[in-house]
Amino acid sequence: MKKAYLKPKRDMKISNASSSELLKRNNNQWKKIVLVVLLSITAISCDVLEVEPQDSIPADAAFKTKEDINKGILGAYASFQSLSYYGRTYNIFSDLAADNLSHPLAATATSYAEVDNNNILPENGSIGGIWNVIYDGINVTNNIITKVPTIEGMTEQEKNTALAELYFIRGLNHFNLMNYFGAIPIKTDPTVGVTNLDAPRNSVEEVYSQIINDVTFAADNLPAAGNKTRASKFAAKALLAKVYLYKKDYPQAIAFASDVIANGNYTLLDNYADAFSDESAESIFEIYFSQTERNRIAEYNFPHSLNGRREVEPSESLLDAYESSDSRYEASIAFEGAEAYAKKYDDLSLGADNVIVLRLADMYLIRAEAEANLSAPNITAIQDDINAIRTRANLTPTSETSVAQLLKIIENERRIEFAFEGQRWFDLVRTNRAIAVLPNVNSINQMLFPIPTDEIQTNNDPGMTQNPGY
Amino acid sequence: MNKNKNLYSFERIKSFRSYLVNIMRIFLLIITIGLSSAFANSSKAQTKIDINVNDISLEDLFQEIQSKSKFIFFYKDDVLHYKVSLHLKNVTVSKILDAAFAHTNLTYKINQRQVVIKENLDAVSNNPNVELQKTVKGTVTDIDGLPLVGATVSIKGTNNGVSTDFDGNFELPVTEDVTILVITYVGFIPQEINIVGKTILEINLVPDNTALNEIVVIGFGTEKKALISDAVTSISSEQIEDLPVSSVDGILQGQAAGVQVQQNSGTPGGQMSVRIRGLSSISGSNQPLYIIDGIPVTTGDFGQVGYSGQGASALTDLNPSDIESISILKDASATAIYGARASNGIVLITTKRGKAQKSVVNVNVYSGMQRAWNRLDMLDAKQWMDYRNDLTGSNAFTQEQMDNISIDTDWQDVIFRTAPINSYEVSTTGGSEKTKFFMSGKVFDQEGILIGTDYQRINGRINIDHQLSDKITIGTSIGLTYAKTNRVESDQTLHGPLPNGISTPAIFPVYNEDGTYNQDGPYSNALSIANEAINQNFTYRTNSNVYVDYNIFEDLTFSSKWGIDFLNFREHAYESRKTVQGAKYNGLGFETYSNVSNIVSNNLLKYNKQLGKHKFEVLAGYSFESYQYRSSFIRGQDYADDNLEYISSASTIVSASASALDSGLRSFFGRANYNFDNKYIANFSGRFDTSTKFGENNRTGFFPAASVAWRISEESFMENVNAVSDLKLRVSYGLTGNDDISPFLFSELYGNTSYGGQPAIYPSNIPNPDLKWEGTAQFNVGLNLGLFENRLSLTADYYNKQTKDLLLSRPLPPSSGFSSITENVGKVENQGIEITIASENYKGEDFTWNTQFNISGNRNKVLELYNGQPIDDIGRGGNRIMEGQPIGIFYSYKSLGVDPSTGDIVFADTNFDGVITSEDRTIVGNPHPDFISSLTNDFRYKGVDLSIFLQSSYGNDVFNGSRLFLESLQGGDNQIEAVTRRWGQPGDITDIPRATTDPVKSSQNKRVSSRFIEDGSYLRVKNVTLGYTIGENAFGKSVFSSVRVYLSAQNLFTFTNYTGLDPEVNYRGDDNSVIGTDFFTYPQAQTFTLGVNLKF
Predict the structure, then answer these.
(1) Smallest Cβ distance to A34: which of B548, B759, B1000?
(2) How far is A387 from chain B (nearest CA, A)?
(3) CB–CB of B584 and A187 under 8 A?
(4) What's the pLDDT at B101?
(5) Using one digit for the tens of pLDDT, what is the confidence trace for A201-210?
(6) Strand duo B957-960 + B1013-1015: pairing
(7) B775 near B724, Cβ under 8 Å?
(8) Strands, DSSP E only, in B554-679?
(9) Taking CA B799 as the corner, what is the angle to CA B797 and CA B805, rounded to the nearest 5 degrees?
(10) Does residue A52 lie within any of the structural domains?
């Protein structure tokens, strides 16, 4: 705008000089005005093409310092908060596809009904949402990973710590995808252009190997202490314990679970319900939610009369599965009239309660299950781990010695201990128990969710195939 | 009469003839003139004769000519003292006279059969004794008797004349030989008056309504309709004056061939979709560019609280009564001067301006009622209980309950209402030669037919033009608007009064016994949302400009116009604890502001030159625009009290944000128009646009166009074809663009978010430095035909629009981390035919009957997409974009009906693989109409006028998405009455499947399929207006110059087979690909209004 004021002034003198000679007197002032208009046109118009984005940062300015990398890492965490992810759907679907939650007759979300019935269409929008948001998280992570080496002023150790945190996020994302969809494309490069976006599905073995590489690096390079809403050394180890259990590498699962139990400085809280307050001593890793990045878990669980949407309700069989004195019953389930509803995440109004990804109880049950699957299991060790959980829940310790029975007990304990925490479906699928336990699952094909239609249609790699049965 | 002496000399009359003869001769003269004009034939002057005379007087020469032809001579005696000798063969009279007068000071004028002989004026002026003068006085008015200020009264064939004064009076001294005066006034038919024997004249000028002389507004100028070589449709204020429609886009409906206007929903003040010549863009906008008085208008929905699909429309802010004319520019030649924004057509709106005339005050008031024209037949309480028992296979409701029904709520009674609509408007216009003004004010107040909705608007306008000097004119247009809309939550969600009301079964009461809202139904109580949720938005707007026109020298004009469109859009929303949403959050409130300003500068140099029959018009322009958008958004909850609805009472702010967006456009443009003898016309135009929306590699685009027209009716060989009064062929071709995308899509950016209370960033888009405009090449060939002095006129156009480099939001494999990228890929074709017929069926003294009809058909086809990949499963109805098909065809399972043995829907196994999978989906419907048309009949008998306006759409399919829920036969939703004919037992043949709780079968039965596709064709009696004008005689001139009362009915009848609430639906009007889907769409109102129009 400076130009707009300066330029006409300078040129006015010239027009004055010439106009006095050439122009008739009465027209003089109007002609001056026209000239001023003309000149201001040229002056002001120079600026109209000089605009900058106001809400976004140009890429070349985004990453310059260590703080910028930290912002990028937080950006990678932010995708965990999506409603399709830990914000709601990812966890709910694991209980809904299994037998912990069901879709009430009066509820309206068709995509939830499909999951409840284990009769899912590839175009199911909620399933597509899970796929999309996890890959979004992976891409953000890969993007920041490539930026870390370019930052001057970060020590090698700082860089490794940053990378370790990013690798943890990438590993967890791949693991979460694989648990619903099976073989998936591994993504380790950021998307910067539109070429080479077609990707084949990698084998389950390859995905495991990628996850283990990433998370092992994280476990080796992350600091032990820290905020529970961000990855730590023991969060990585706890995740490794779980990954090895799912991979059926039992010795490794035992080793990592034991490491976390022994050295992680976490405690099983006496009161089970306390485990669900934010950053409890039992929690190993959880996703941050606040009033601004709210989760909608309570909204979908709560009955209408409490202003919820009630797209899901605890199943009859889950209610029956609790033993009578189980303290977890009251901590997990509430009633409004005759309607039961899940209440582990009960901040309906703000949705600000953090969502737990890994907690200590899981480590005990992972170790117990892994031990029970060894060729020569230590029965006492299994009992001890189970009883650590049972005792805390106010239940009598088990003295069962049959490995097969112990595995049943572990399965049931996991169902109740982690009810509404998004574990049940994965437990039944990885142990091949889904067909036996779930009335709607009759075929092995149903144990994997369909690859979303969008991916099938846009990904032209011949290796991008639909799961059988869809 | 003395046959031989059939020569008339004024001098003689005066000198020796009796008064009787005198009068007879004047009588004869008048008759003669009358006859001569009656047999007017331009070939008369070409009559050729032989002359062979020696030294005779002029008088004798005239007699000689008269004996050999039918000419009659008028002269003064004293001119006859010349003697001539002529020997000429086969020459015209003018040749004879040229020769005869060669050495005299005489001139002549041939008018039809009359030859008037005069002395040369210059010669006369040297001889004051010869000059004889009289003074003619008079008044010039229009046909209503209103004086016309500044009308020109001149002596025919000269430049001598005067202008009328403020009361339309004039005084003109004329010489005795002057017989004819010409009176001209812009917008009126020029009139010639014979003044022989008259000194006082009363002249009534007739408005020039003849279509060919109509002046049509085109891009950066005007042109006579007859001389236009482009495809332009013009709508005048008369055509739209009685429509009780609140917005500009609303009045476009049915007015122009090739323009499809769809009310997305009946929300008062809501957005409409306007499509000129089809959909050419998939991801960019398809709305035309609106330009008011030369300044582009900001359009679109700036709402931030979710109302998508029935959004606010920035267009609604203009008062339709302020419009003088609307021009719709359709082909490339007409639009290319708007360059990168022209692909979707241009709507040029011109507001009324003052005239140099006595001031006129115009008052228009109307008031009326609206109601829903249609309702759905829903299950009543007993039918509902019966259905639920059938569904659950139990006796959830006992026979006793079913026999003693106490609650049977008709929820449509609860949500619909009869709603008032009122409009009060005053305008005044007038001015002097130097300063002219138009001012208007309007209050418009409309309640919605759906509870909780209403719209109020106050408009003001001042348009002033002032002549500063001979060469400089300045002026301004200032439009001001305040509007307030009460809305209810969107059609699309299941949280609005309309979907909730219709979907709640009749067994639920509106209120509990304690007076609180009953919330036991499957959805929030509809009334509670409407009454207890506040959803208001407010518009504060000015759309104004100033200009200066500088006539540098006679043919060269410079003009500069600066405009600002400033819009402040504020939303205020609050849901109290009495609603489900509000209770969830202990009161939930929103406060948003959007501040949009667009500053425009248009600078033009215009040069006009006529050289004989060659006419040139050249225009060069330079323009720039600077657009700024600023917005803020606050969401709060946990309110201290339900009566405190503003954010300051919210104890928790859950979201607060502000954002900004800038863009700029700089353009050079020009046009050259060449016209030979009004017969051959050629037009070239072009524009360079540099836009900040485009990538670094393609910042500037060039958009050229050309058209030619041939006015065949002006050719001499057409002279004898009397029936054809106008015949013109037009051809045009040109390139235009579409730049309607968000800025900065080309650049690599990081967006911001937060995690753990700390700032976070993430890559927000994939950069595309090659991003550019979407290009459309359009070919147009058109024909204008006028028959019987244009009493029957036809305009026909064929066009072919090829759009390439689509601004396509191309889906990416989601595994890339992005769902799409905006790229220039793909091609779309639109071709179609437009026909407009206007006919003056009957034109009598007392009775006139005019008909206007237009029909158009557009064929849309996607020619190319990225890698041939279809864009699939869009919206609720399974719209799809695929090559070889129109945009947004319905692509889903084909329902073969209900299997009589199982009661379940059978789907077509289109690939014969034995199972029904997504591979079996196929094309099941087309949302695009085959034809749209409208028909208007205007009748006028004395003071009574009647107008009947029909509008129709033929051949479009609608996906009735409401039936997905209302015929779901599962869940808690109320059902339409049709489900009472559901399948009950084996052998039943019906179209409605069984009610079953079988999870697989029930969800398959209601899957999106051809079962829910319906024919959306309709014929609507859109408007009927009956008016009566009481002339000035009734009141005397002192009070009103005219009073008109009228009765108007909007949407009087609708004929359709569509089973939903309204066939005119588009539940996501903001989306190009989700078209033709009804999802609890707010239906249109049937409106009856009574109005009065006073002029004084």
Answers:
(1) B548
(2) 35
(3) no
(4) 77
(5) 999 999 999 9
(6) antiparallel
(7) no
(8) 556-575, 588-611, 614-639, 650-676
(9) 160
(10) yes
Say yes or no for a CB contact (<8 Å) between A48 and B813.
no
Per the CB < 8 A criterion, the answer to whether A284 and A264 are in contact is yes
pTM over 0.95? The answer is no
Q: How many CB atoms lie within 10 A of CB B278?
A: 27
Q: Nearest C-alpha of chain B: how many angstroms from A460?
A: 9
Nearest residue on chain A to B558, judged by CA atoms?
A: A34
> Which residue range forms the structural domain that includes residue A25?
19-196+203-290+355-435
CA distance B323 to A218: 69
Nearest CA of chain A to the CA of B883: how many Å? Answer: 14
Can you tell me the distance from the alpha carbon of A203 to that of A184, in angstroms, rounded to the nearest whole number? 7
pLDDT, residue B212, reads 59
The alpha carbon of residue A397 is apart from the nearest alpha carbon of chain B, in Å, by 39
Number of domains in chain A: 1
Do residues B458 and B442 make contact, with C-beta atoms less than 8 angstroms apart?
yes
Spatial distance between the Cα atoms of B976 and B966, rounded to a whole number of angstroms = 6
CA distance B74 to B997: 104
In angstroms, the CA B987 to CA B997 distance is 20
B3 burial type by CB count under 10 A (0-12 exposed, 13-18 middle, 19+ buried): exposed
CA dist B760 and B751 (Å) reads 8
Q: Which helix (H) or strand (E) holds B1027?
A: strand B1018-1030
Q: Using CA atoms, how far apart are residues B818 and B825, in angstroms rounded to an integer?
A: 17
Helix (H, G, I), strand (E, B) or coil at B434: coil
- Does residue A40 fall inside a structural domain? yes
Structure tokens at B591: 């406060």
Average pLDDT over residues A59-65: 84
Residue A342 lies in a domain: no
- To test the contact with chain B by mutation, choose from A112, A454, A455, A460 the residue with the greatest count of B C-beta atoms within 10 A, namely A454
Q: Which stretches of chain B drop beneath a pLDDT of 50? A: 1-17, 20, 23, 26-43, 123-130, 309
How do the residues of chain B divide into helix, strand and coil, expressed in percent and rounded to 5?
15, 50, 35
Residue B783 amino acid letter: L
Contacts 24+ apart (CB under 8 A), B159-163: B163/B433
Is A307 within 8 Å of chain B by CB? yes
Q: Is position A10 within any domain?
A: no
Decide if B558 and A34 are in contact by the 8 Å CB cutoff: yes
> Which residues share a beta bridge with B872?
none
Provide the CATH number for the domain around residue A403. Answer: 1.25.40.390
A49 Cβ under 8 Å from any chain B Cβ: yes
Q: Give the mean pLDDT of A45-53.
A: 75
Q: Which of B621, B652, B610, B628 is nearest to B568 (CA)?
A: B628
Mean pLDDT, residues A107-128 taken together: 89
Characterize B964-989 residue by residue with b for buried, 16 or more Cβ atoms within 10 angstroms of its Cβ, and e for exposed.
Answer: bbbbbbbbbbbbbebbeebbeeeeee
Whether residues B548 and A33 touch (CB distance < 8 A) is answered with: yes
In Å, what is the CA distance from A87 to each residue of A298, B819, B996? 10, 20, 33
Find where tokens 């994965």 sit. Answer: A426
In this structure, which amino acid lies at residue A216?
Answer: T
In chain B, residues with a C-beta closer than 8 Å to the C-beta of A39 are: none
pLDDT tens-digit map of B962-972: 898 899 888 78
B440, β-bridge pairs: B427, B461
Whether the CB-CB separation of A183 and A202 falls below 8 Å is answered with yes
Angle at B1067 between CA B1063 and CA B1072, to 5 degrees: 105
Neighbouring-strand partners of residue B819: none
pLDDT of residue A19: 39
CA B777 to CA B343: how far, in whole Å?
Answer: 9
Nearest to B662 among A37, A51, A78 (CB): A51
pLDDT tens readout for residues A146-199: 999 999 889 999 999 999 999 999 999 999 999 999 999 999 999 888 888 899
